[in-house]
Amino acid sequence: MSGMEYKGLTECVRGLTDMADAYAATAEKYLCRAGNALKREAINRSPVGGTADTTTTKTGRKRRNIKKLKHSWKAVVTGASGSQLEYRLRSTAPQYHLVERGHVQKTPGGRITGFTPGTHFFADTVAEFERSGVIETQLEKFFDDVKRRWDQP
After folding, report:
1. What is the CA radius of gyration of the chain?
2. Structural contact between residues 102 and 47, judged by C-beta atoms closer than 8 angstroms
3. Are 79 and 67 contacting, i.e. CB atoms less than 8 angstroms apart?
4. Alpha-helix runs per DSSP H in the chain
5. Taking the mean position of all CA atoms in its chain, how far away is CA 60?
6. Contact 63, 108 (CB under 8 A)
7. pLDDT for res 1
8. How confident is the model at residue 102 (pLDDT cuts 50, 70, 90)?
9. How many Å apart are CA 73 and CA 56, to the nearest integer?
């Protein structure tokens, strides 16, 4: 035990949850602002990849390249009440997991020729976002907005 006592911590957490439930629309607004800041940072730090929009196969057919990572970020807010709100950010690009985590390189015959390490750009983006203080700023703005609404008669 650390020797510190937290009196009333559960009541404080319950009070914050009740406030988020009472002002769910306001909480969602500020959650979206913080989440969209993370989305912008993920877009900026996504690897560019190939530059051509189409490629030519061996048979001479043109085909579209797969979706670029930069244009594949989708976000959705789920939850009905303030305590259940959740911002989910994901990449819809089919190659995302290969770029993020790494993959083996194989010949068309199936022989493994090497390994491409992952870039871990999204993990780095999330770590930098947590250090940036955007969440704390949006939380303060949320509290100020709720306080302003609370003080109005």
Report:
1. 22
2. no
3. no
4. 9-22, 24-45, 96-101, 121-132, 134-151
5. 39
6. no
7. 43
8. very high
9. 27
Average pLDDT score, the chain:
84
On the CB side of 22, how many CA atoms lie within 13 Å of its CA?
Answer: 13
Cα–Cα distance measured from residue 95 to residue 101, given in angstroms and rounded to the nearest whole number = 10
Task: Give the other-Cβ count within 10 Å of 136's Cβ.
Answer: 11
Q: Which residues, including other chains, have CB under 8 Å from residue 120's CB and lie 6 or more apart? A: 100, 101
Residue with tokens 């594949």: 72
Indicate the DSSP class of residue 69: G
Give the position of tokens 């530059």. 51
Joined tokens for residue 39: 């989305």
Pick from 93, 91, 102: nearest CA to 125: 91
Q: Which pTM does this prediction carry?
A: 0.74
Separation in Å, CA 69 to CA 91, 104, 113, 128: 7, 20, 25, 19
Q: What is the pLDDT of residue 132?
A: 93
